[in-house]
Amino acid sequence: MTTAQVDPAVHPAAHPAWLPEAAFAPLGSRRIAVEIAEREWSRLEAEVAATVRAEVEAAVATHGGAVVTPDDAPDLVLAVIAHNDRDAEAFTVARTNGVTRVTAATPRGLLYGLFHVVRLGEAAFEHGDLDVERHAPATSLRMLDHWDNIVVHPAMGQVERGYSGGSIFYDDGVVREDLSRVAQYARLLAASGINRVAINNVNVGPLETRLIDDLLPDVVRIADVFRPYGITTHVSVSWASPVRLRGLPTSDPFSPEVRQWWAGAADRVWAAIPDFGGFVIKADSEGQPGPFAYGRTHADGANMLAAAVAPHGGLIHWRAFVYNHEQDWRDRKTDRAKAAFQHFAPYDGTFADNVIVQIKHGPLDFQVREATSPAIAAMPNTRVAAEFQVTTEYLGHQKHAVYLGRQWSELLSFPYWGEGSATMADIAVGRGPGGHAGGFAAVSNVGDDVFWTGHPFSQANLYAWGRLTWDPTADPIAILDEWTGLTFPGAPAEVRSTIHTILDESWETYEMYTAPLGVCFMVYPHTHYGPSPDGYEYTPWGTYHFADRDGVGVDRTVATGTGYTAQYPEPWSSVYESVETCPDELVLFFHHVPYTHVLHSGKTVIQHVYDTHFDGLERVRSSIAAWEAAAGEFPADLAARVTDRFAEQLRSTTDWRDIINTYFLRKSGIPDAQGRTIY
Ligand code: GCU
């Protein structure tokens, strides 16, 4: 289905995001030949082939071009040809004698090639001859996870950690009849590079457990909507499914009945959806059931599920977000940061080939600044996926303008064994020491909001996630420009420069006015929005700063602390162990230091806290000034929404500045060197 087929009466205002009609003008005004050889295509490829044709037809119908035969002087040829490219999603682009030619081995490759031409715009047709350029994704595992609930959860709502309205899939208790927003979403995702979607929350409730049972026909409907855009559907399952659904007395992975039950469930799912992706599972994590109850390990659990789905070519995404969430704050030895490594690294090499261990990028929980997860580098004989959050649970709930491209890029390029060594992205795509690929997964930020993402500028994060999964080495600011160009085609130069002023360094700005120097979780418990310096300090979820009158930070050293630094390979283990070499931005993540400790920047810790909080608010004010000057250049409804969000961001940032500064002044008794107002 193309956007042309979406019923405007049902969804009058869904914003076109990075696929407005105008972005297709350079392509749609051309003479285009589509050649897709008749072959025994799989259903997926056959449907994607139809999509390519429909996209081209819709574009030329709107912009005055024509669909022609290859002999009829085309400007653009889109061809699936016999190719020896082994990557089914790859495509090539070349230009000879005034004809731009995109070729691929499959319709999926061609679809990505088509969107590549849309991104290039006029540039795709302007040049003289251009040599063949090959484009291929870094990995075939480019995924988005939806934390959507079918039924509205009393505390978490329809979408857990969702800041964009309701779910595009579910409407209080049922799977939506009208999935046209899902179709639009699939198209947006394909145009950014995503090829897998898990459709429900990892915290699986009783109703959601039934998605692999009597609600399977609804999953079939959703998979049917994703398939034409080359997107594979996955479902989150509950470890307790055999108990919940069939009343078995156990879900012990070693029980023959349990194994048989899962094999039967997998047979049913794949019979209904032959190209289904697999199961995502959160087990023994934050109260979710898992194999621990039966004295079994995560490897035992994952391998049992893997055996059930293996005959169908299915995958198990087994999440490594396992830690003790019932900690006693008096216990200074337990360190949540150590948990994923402790639980998973010992089992490296024992997971089945179709298990992907999905590990959050940091050892805690998607904080604005935390170290990279050492567990990601500790499993060379396992397929490891790096997990991120596109939704901004800890980064302002899509009320603050925060572009995450830079953060992701920095994390993805982190060299685990020192300069020039394999990076986080290398490990995920199978170029790490063991060569096993697990790919990328992230929590989606999309809802049924007209702008998809609450803050219209948060669309840039969704776009950037897709583009970075395709090429993790891409420049995040070039991606931002690309997003701006597509989303606001033909916009005046002010639009681009305004977006830069607002978003370019917005991750750093957010870090400045929130928790300093790698201190984590200074947010309100549960909601994770707004400043609450001691909100988590004495809760069972872990202790994050230990601030007292003398100093602040978590001592995670081997010498005197929790010993967490030993989980890193060299050189990082030593770099982080010593306060002399630890990078400033992580100093309080790894060390407990006096407020008068002097950073590499030359400032004391306390003065750094004050300065960044005053400066952070100023940066937000500058963004608002830039916005106000250019708001008139943007569509009115979008401008109104952004203006609204900025009002809240200013209020919230002021809160952050004053509460954090006041907290540290009261703790330390050390005044601001510049004598600014602290309450
Ligand atoms: C965080 C988040 C939860 C989520 C969990 C997870 O703790 O706050 O809402 O369920 O991560 O990743 O499973």
Automatic annotation (TrEMBL):
<dbReference type="GO" id="GO:0033939">
    <property type="term" value="F:xylan alpha-1,2-glucuronosidase activity"/>
</dbReference>
<dbReference type="GO" id="GO:0005576">
    <property type="term" value="C:extracellular region"/>
</dbReference>
<dbReference type="InterPro" id="IPR011100">
    <property type="entry name" value="Glyco_hydro_67_cat"/>
</dbReference>
<dbReference type="GO" id="GO:0046559">
    <property type="term" value="F:alpha-glucuronidase activity"/>
</dbReference>
<feature type="domain" description="Glycosyl hydrolase family 67 C-terminal">
    <location>
        <begin position="453"/>
        <end position="676"/>
    </location>
</feature>
<dbReference type="InterPro" id="IPR037054">
    <property type="entry name" value="A-glucoronidase_C_sf"/>
</dbReference>
<feature type="domain" description="Glycosyl hydrolase family 67 catalytic">
    <location>
        <begin position="134"/>
        <end position="452"/>
    </location>
</feature>
<dbReference type="Pfam" id="PF07477">
    <property type="entry name" value="Glyco_hydro_67C"/>
</dbReference>
<keyword id="KW-0378">Hydrolase</keyword>
<dbReference type="Pfam" id="PF07488">
    <property type="entry name" value="Glyco_hydro_67M"/>
</dbReference>
<dbReference type="InterPro" id="IPR011099">
    <property type="entry name" value="Glyco_hydro_67_C"/>
</dbReference>
<protein>
    <submittedName>
        <fullName>Alpha-glucuronidase</fullName>
        <ecNumber>3.2.1.139</ecNumber>
    </submittedName>
</protein>
<dbReference type="GO" id="GO:0045493">
    <property type="term" value="P:xylan catabolic process"/>
</dbReference>
<dbReference type="InterPro" id="IPR017853">
    <property type="entry name" value="GH"/>
</dbReference>
<keyword id="KW-0326">Glycosidase</keyword>
